[in-house]
């Protein structure tokens, strides 16, 4: 049997637990329940849902060896003051498990976990040890990052992204307008493939930053003018993609022709992948919020101890 690391990630969208043996990883996760018509959960509701959900998530995770270390996502980002109460559920579970097993515990940021999951699942683990650009595209985050190695993990510097509405928020607001269930990414992606009039809009930009509120305004205008649902879905997604591609090009002028890694739930979008052939993408199942990246970083940490 192989030694394993186990890690927890309890973001505002998904409860997840994962194990990693240095080569292979297994992830167990489930989206939090959101009432129809709503666009997410309050932190208190998310924290309660994680605590209630964690036992079934852990039960569904197959273990094939002894656990040698435990990790958890402790904060949204690895910067001072970054905090969300929902991560306390995974941290508490992780610290307690490590204590009773007598193994070390390691904490990382949710964003570091996304980067590690994307690097590993795309077959580019070397990116954890070399500078690169990365997009974190999720329900609440649309950030272009300059990523540099730092110890066993990485240091992420925000160099671009949205200044207002995130890509995930725009997608979910579009989905709500079209009567789709939250989160709306997969349904909107599927619907956009049916579009005949493939229109898009280039959002207002400022260097590597941009604003998506104008896309939302135009999307609602399309709805009022009687546009088909598929055209609205395509318009929203394609406009986000244009903004992301333009910001990436601006960043390359500043930082050089670096590899570009795409992580976060929005990075699983098939239209984004089709329109960005030069990008490095996580496997879709490892694009969404998950613990596998934290388990990978925990493996690196415990093995760095010798």
Can you tell me about this structure?
- The chain folds into two domains: 4-122 and 289-304, ATPase, nucleotide binding domain (Nucleotidyltransferase, domain 5), CATH 3.30.420.40; 160-281, Nucleotidyltransferase, domain 5, CATH 3.30.420.40.
- The protein contains nine helices and twelve strands.
- It has helices at residues 43-59, 87-101, 110-121, 167-177, 185-192, 213-224, 229-255, 270-275, 292-304; strands spanning 4-10, 14-20, 25-31, 67-75, 105-109, 132-137, 142-150, 153-162, 205-206, 209-210, 260-263, 280-281.
- Helix 4 (167-177) packs antiparallel against helix 7 (229-255).
* β-strand amount: 15-25%
Strand segment count? 12
Separation, N- and C-terminal Cα atoms: 19 Å
Based on Cα principal axes, name the global outline. Answer: globular
For the sheet with most strands, the description reads:
7 strands, mixed
Which stretches are low in confidence, meaning pLDDT under 50 for 5 or more residues running? none
What class, by secondary structure content?
Answer: alpha/beta
- Count of individual helical segments: 9
Work out the helicity level: 25-40%
Secondary-structure arrangement, i.e. CATH architecture of the largest domain = 2-Layer Sandwich
Q: In angstroms, what is the radius of gyration?
A: 19 Å
Q: Please identify the top-level CATH class of the largest domain.
A: Alpha Beta
The fold-level CATH name of the largest domain is Nucleotidyltransferase, domain 5
Per CATH, the superfamily of the largest domain is: ATPase, nucleotide binding domain
Helix/strand order, N-terminal first: EEEHEHEHEEEHHEEHHEHEH
Which strands sit side by side, in order, in the main sheet? 9-10-8-7-6-11-12
Mean pLDDT: 94
Number of domains: 2
């Amino acid at each position: 049997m192989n030694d394993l690391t186990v890690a927890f990630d309890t973001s505002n969208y998904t409860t997840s637990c994962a194990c990693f043996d240095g080569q292979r990883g297994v992830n167990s996760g489930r989206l939090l329940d959101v009432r129809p018509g709503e666009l997410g959960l309050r932190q208190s509701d998310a924290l309660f849902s994680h605590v209630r959900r964690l036992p079934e998530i852990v039960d569904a995770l197959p273990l094939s060896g002894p656990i040698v270390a435990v990790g958890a996502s402790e904060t949204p980002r690895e910067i001072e003051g970054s905090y969300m109460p929902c991560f306390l559920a995974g941290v508490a579970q992780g610290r307690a498990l490590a204590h009773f097993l007598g193994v070390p515990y390691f904490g990382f940021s949710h964003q570091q976990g996304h980067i590690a999951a994307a690097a590993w699942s795309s077959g580019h683990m070397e990116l954890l040890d070399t500078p690169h650009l990365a997009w974190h595209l999720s329900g609440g985050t649309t950030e272009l990052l300059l990523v540099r190695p730092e110890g066993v993990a990485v240091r992420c510097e925000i160099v671009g992204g949205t200044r207002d509405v995130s890509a995930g928020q725009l997608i979910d607001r579009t989905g709500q307008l079209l009567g789709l269930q939250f989160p709306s990414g997969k349904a909107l992606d599927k619907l956009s493939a049916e579009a005949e009039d493939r229109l898009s809009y280039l959002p207002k930009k400022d260097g590597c930053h941009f604003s998506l509120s104008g896309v939302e305004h135009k999307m609602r205008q399309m709805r009022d003018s009687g546009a088909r649902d598929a055209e609205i879905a395509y318009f929203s997604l394609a406009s986000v993609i244009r903004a992301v591609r333009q910001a990436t090009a601006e960043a390359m002028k500043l930082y050089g022709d670096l590899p570009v890694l795409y992580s976060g739930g929005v990075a699983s979008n098939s239209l984004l992948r089709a329109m960005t052939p030069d990008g490095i993408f996580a496997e879709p199942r490892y694009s969404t919020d998950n613990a596998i990246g934290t388990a990978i970083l925990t493996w690196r940490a415990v093995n760095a101890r010798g």
